[in-house]
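Entry for magnesium ion complex. Fields follow.
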Amino acid sequence: MRLLSFTMAGKQLIGVLKQDRRTVIDLSLVDPSLPTDMNSFIDLGAGAIERVGRIIDSTSPKAEKELSDINLLSPIPVPRRNIFCVGRNYYEHAKEFHDSGFDATAGKSAVPEDPIIFTKATTSMSGPFDPIPSYYDTSNSTDYEGELAVIIGSDGRDINKEDAFDFVYGYSVSNDVTARSLQHKHKQWFLGKSLDGYYPMGPVIVTSDEAGHPDTFHLKTLVNGEERQNSSVADLIFDIPTLIECISSNITLKKGDIIATGTPVGVGIGYEPPIFLKKGDLVEVEIDPIGSIRNRVE
Ligand code: MG
């Protein structure tokens, strides 16, 4: 199932994108007892997905909207907690970042021995087609990082790798937008990664029952139509089960948590000299089979 959040007539709602990828079913008109925010829907677990799946094909046309008529939000417009993120998690990107001079944490080796986990503030979240407010970055060093986002569907601590996919609710597309000079200057990455609006996500959450194995996913990032990143998600250094095991051995994972799994080679600082985003650029991140997000730099 493809779940999304949107606003209509000033109300925030959740919906399902139909197979035609153009029609949205407003769940508040299908079943008024369902929640209208995604965090509460995720709380209801797989049971709610199955229930909606059973009634979705017999809905009244009144519950259907054209995708082009609604204002899409991030599927989780206000995360309950910071977004968990993973640094240097594709081999070629680990090398390009290590060699760029922008990594204040760089040791001798480009490839980390253990996952590098940091977070982005909840206020960095923005919608799949929202502008990137690069005017907040006074260092003029804003860069893109196309990333697969994993949405957690059950609370868990000390989750074994073997059980990790049982805790995955679904997947989304995201851009871990980063102000490189701030990331470097403040040593810890939090400020450079957390500017308001620096985490566009969407356009949907594809639930894990429909998505298939993430090793089959393919990520591309385009800037003004030019391909910059092109990688299989199977190339992650630390795969999704390893990340879930690592984080949950320290911090209880909660329903609705988001893990941005890291970016492949091809970011702006990988170029010599670096190519930062500038006002007017259009950044598109596409993950097959989820969809794509497109964000104009402002
Ligand atoms: Mg990243």
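NOTE: Helices lie at 27-30, 38-43, 45-55, 91-100, 180-185, 190-193, 208-211, 240-248.
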